[in-house]
Amino acid sequence: MKRSPDTICAAIAVTALLLAICIPLRPSFLYAQGVLLPSYGQGKTIVRVYTDYFCGPCRAGEPKVEALLLQLVKTNKIKLMFIDTPAHKTTSLYAQYFLYILNLKKDFEHALSARRVLFEAASQKITAKEKLEEVLTQKGIGFKPFDPKQTFNAMSQYIKDDGVRATPTIIIDNGTEKQPFVGIDNIVNALELLK
User: Fold this and answer.
1) How confident is the model at residue 79, as a pLDDT?
2) 154-175 confidence digits (pLDDT tens)
3) Which helix (H) or strand (E) holds 178?
4) 147 within domain boundaries
5) Structure pTM?
6) How many CB atoms lie within 10 A of CB 9?
7) How far apart are CA 191 and CA 42, in angstroms?
8) Structural domain of residue 68, as residue ranges?
């Protein structure tokens, strides 16, 4: 049976549509769509870190978690993504500025420094944009504004897909299985096992 060019084009279009629907969002695809959601490290295991700058346990556990993440990223054991989780009403402002900071400089150690400054600002209960900008400037953390709507949409999708209901949470995705770990002790233990 001979197929017409129209039939072949239609089949290709349907196949492309099905592939677009079925391929899960991964950071490289998100970045290609203009979404600023950088990942760090070259490991096969993906670790998504869900925190809220105003979450006391997140802030208290950050030094332990940061040290482990730094080691795992530098040894390419993991590919790491930070996903700010807006449990507190002001977290969206902080998440926006974290993205602005990464928009200027995506370096991993710079991202960690920025997170430390943002956690510190949250502990001081800074909720005004101007005050937050002042703190960032004083600490030498630059930022470059952009429209973060698409990135926030992507983050919201990850939060939904991973079923995140509390912070701090990490998801460890080895490609065949996603495992959630909630609470600093569980997170530290899970990250230790990845070494």
Assistant:
1) 97
2) 999 999 999 999 999 999 999 9
3) strand 178-182
4) yes
5) 0.82
6) 10
7) 16
8) 27-193
